[in-house]
Amino acid sequence: LGVLLSGASTMIPEADIGPVESLPNLESLDVTPDPSLLKSTVMLKLNGGLGTGMGLEKAKSLLEVTDGNTFLDLIAKQVDSMKTEFKAKDLQFMLMNSFATSKDTLEALAKYEDLGTGEDLEFVQNKAPKVTASDFSPADWPKEPGHEFCPPGHGDLYPAMVGSGTLDKLLKKGFKYMFVSNSDNLGATMDV
User: Fold this and answer.
1) Alpha-helical regions (H) of 88-138
2) What phi and psi, each to the nearest 5 degrees, are found at residue 105?
3) Which of 38, 95, 154, 166 has a 20 to 30 Å separation from 115 between CA atoms?
């Protein structure tokens, strides 16, 4: 709020952005598949978005994709498939939910007991207060107090992990790597 009220720009001018000078080609890298790395890897899905633009009032990951399966059902099946294929029963899966998606998401995933529960399954991103355009005072919505806040988006991943204690918890459990993708991107899967 302080930055907003100060009028300071949070944009990075295009003139300050330059192209990457060089990157190695994938074909030139020596990549040896190593499923043992799954023991120290967390698969995280960003799941804070509501499907309001699609007429929903719940997590967009609860949209049916095919044959009665939602995005979340297919993600749970992808995780189960990886656990089976790579004999990695301890593959850690987590969600970064928002205050608006947590309840519905946890209810939908309760049938997949092997995914985990509670703090082992999710952490909730922060919430930011909405302000009025006229004077930047806090928005007031007595009929729907939940509408007075919004999730800050994917950029909140690191502050939410630190603030919730999730990062410390994962590091203490020996995790070193994290695969992050959106819950509505079923094509994003880990290569082992």
Assistant:
1) 102-109, 118-121
2) -65, -50
3) 154
Give the other-Cβ count within 10 Å of 3's Cβ: 9
Q: Which two tokens stand for residue 167?
A: 């990062």
Geometric angle at alpha carbon 62, from 83 and 47, rounded to 5°: 70
Rounded to whole angstroms, the Cα distance separating 63 from 71 reads: 6
- Residue holding tokens 């790579």? 86
Taking the C-alpha atoms of residue 79 and residue 109, their distance in angstroms, rounded to an integer, is 12
Supply the pTM of this predicted model. Answer: 0.83
Using alpha carbons, list the distances in angstroms from residue 52 to 14, 57, 71, 109, 143. Answer: 31, 6, 16, 21, 18
Give me the helix-helix angle, 102-109 and 71-85, nearest 10°.
50
Identify the bridge partners of residue 45 per DSSP, sorted by sequence position.
95, 181
| Both structure tokens of 44 | 């995280």
What pLDDT, on a 0 to 100 scale, did the predictor assign at position 144?
Answer: 87
At a CB cut-off of 8 Å and minimum separation 6, what does 164 contact?
123, 124
| 111-129 residue pLDDT tens | 998 888 878 899 999 988 8
